[in-house]
Amino acid sequence: MNPKRLASTQDHLEIEDIRDSIVILKNGNAVSVLQTTAVNFDLLSEGEQDAMIFTYAALLNSLTFPIQVIVRSKITDISSYLARLEAQKNKQKNPNLVATISRYQNFVRDLVAKNQVLDKRFYVIIPYLETRFTKTGIKAVSKGKVNKWDTLEQAKVQLAPKKETITKLLARIGVKVKELNTQELVELFYDIYNSEVAREQKIALTASDYTKPLVEPHLLVLKRAVVTEKEGTGV
């Protein structure tokens, strides 16, 4: 009788693998993820706003491939910021500076307690395969089951000029672009799928750890615990 296959969290994800700064999907597609800066549109003059709108329109009209723009908002974790303030306060010998830092710490705590401080991140997703638009976003036109290593090599070739084009076009409107590397992609998707846990603790995974099974049947875990206990007692 064949042993029951272990359940893995990867079975429920669309991601097949993350290699060389590229996300390989189970449908045979692959994408690059670019993180961009933002421009405070309201602070621009009317002329600058018009110029930016026309430049952005020209950017969209010049694209020869689809992209997906994602704006992600998450509650900001200020614990590390408060810890840095505390460290600086402990270094101060001037009592006036110590009192000032303490008042500022209390102000930040009160601000976060009364209002949710959100951190906004902006991403541009560039697909490798031919895609089509749906109500839920961009989906690849699957070409059947393919070898992920072949997909990776072909995606590298096709995505490189697309990334260069997007970077140049966004630079025209004052937006800087940074491609997420493999570790940053792992951390991003970990944060997306484990938002509550990620808020309390930083991811401890490396790029290779996420491929390991993370979910096992309860009975199997219990059985392993019993075996370990017997081994420890010499039974």
Order of secondary-structure elements? EEEHEHHEEEHEHHH
Number of strands: 8
Please tell me what the overall shape is.
Answer: flat
List the total number of helices.
Answer: 7
**Percent helix among the residues?**
40-55%
Q: What is the percentage of strand-forming residues?
A: 15-25%
Tell me the span between the first and last alpha carbons. 28 Å
Number of domains: 2
The stretches of 5 or more residues where confidence is low (pLDDT under 50) are 212-235
The structure class reads: alpha+beta
Based on CA atoms alone, the radius of gyration comes out at 24 Å
* Mean pLDDT value: 78
The description of the largest β-sheet is: 6 strands, antiparallel
Keywords:
46% helix, single chain, 2 domains, 235 residues, 19% strand, disordered C terminus, 6-stranded antiparallel β-sheet, alpha+beta, two-stranded antiparallel ribbon, 7 helices
Task: Please give a structural write-up.
- There is one protein chain.
- The protein is of the alpha+beta class and 235 residues long.
- The protein folds into 2 domains: 12-74 and 119-205, no CATH class; 77-116.
- It contains 7 helices and 8 strands.
- It has helices spanning 46-62, 79-91, 95-114, 148-171, 182-193, 195-200, 218-233, and strands at 15-19, 22-25, 30-36, 68-75, 118-127, 131-134, 137-140, 177-179.
- Strands 1, 2, 3, 4, 5 and 8 form a 6-stranded antiparallel β-sheet that branches. Strands 6-7 form a two-stranded antiparallel sheet.
- Strand 2 (22-25) and strand 3 (30-36) form a beta hairpin.
- It is flat and about 65 Å long.
- The protein starts with 14 loop residues before the first strand and ends with a helix.
- 11% of the residues are buried.
